[in-house]
Design a protein that fits this description.
By secondary structure, this protein is of the alpha/beta class. It has helices spanning about 15-25, 45-55, 70-75, 75-95, 135-155, 180-195, 215-225, 245-255, 280-285, 295-310; strands at about 5-10, 30-35, 60, 100-105, 160-165, 165-170, 200-205, 210, 210-215, 235, 245, 260-265, 275.
Length: about 325
Amino acid sequence: MNPETPIFIAGHGGMVGAAVVRELRRQGFSRLLLRTRFELDLCNGRAVEEFYRKERPGAVLVAAARVGGIHANQTYPAEFIRENLAIALNLIHGAHRHGVPRLLFLGSSCIYPRSASQPMSEDCLLTGPLEPTNEAYAIAKIAGLKLAQFYRRQHGVLFHSAMPTNLYGPGDFYHPTNSHVLPAMLRRFHEAREQGAPQVTLWGSGSPRREFLHVDDLARACVHLMSLADPPDWVNVGTGTDISIRELAEHVRDVTGYGGELVWDTSRPEGTPRKLLCIDRIAATGWSPRIEWREGVARTYQNYLQERAEGRLRE
């Protein structure tokens, strides 16, 4: 992409969108089109059409989504599928209608079957049942991926997708019940230390394994993919390594300085036993992650403390 290309980052206020904005600016891109959810409702097709008609972006990055952890996905499945379907349809179809030549849609590793062989390659898509605890979100993301693929196939537009693994980093969402596992742990252990709580209870057994990618590495991957002349229709973005939830919890306890006991509530759901991405396809294009997870978690805790102190914590 040319640094003078006007780029619309949908969802720039979220963790991913903000990281992409930082990376684009670092690389000299100056014409960034940014709208808050109050300025542009992405679930409103007419509003999106009017935005495209007026602003005429040369590229679009779809980082906007309704997201959350297991509790949120199980509690609000109708909202998760409806809002994410609407965002994908409005932004992808609107981009085509208004002549946007390039679009990158961001999905999630949860699009792959629950029992997919590990590590999961892009080719395992739609080869088996999804994880029930986030099925609604996954279906919406699969639909967005396929929309981009079929618009590219039928209309020749350069619409493509990236499927990141579990993300974390500055600007994460720290809701006490609806956030993802890593920010939820950071907040709970920090508050438990402040309150002198003797123990922290965590969901499941701690045995499921997860892969964690720092959001700044994802941002680099997004800009990299949007610079390729012929990117894959969709590509995994991860680290190629995973850890157990128990190992993560023990490290977060150490990072936050909490000295209490960890209690595992095995009556609670814990999701897919393992989710590890095969990253051979994106590695072949010249990208690789840089931030090791232990370093990344320590940095993210410092971000949490700063955001909390400044009243900027997303919760």
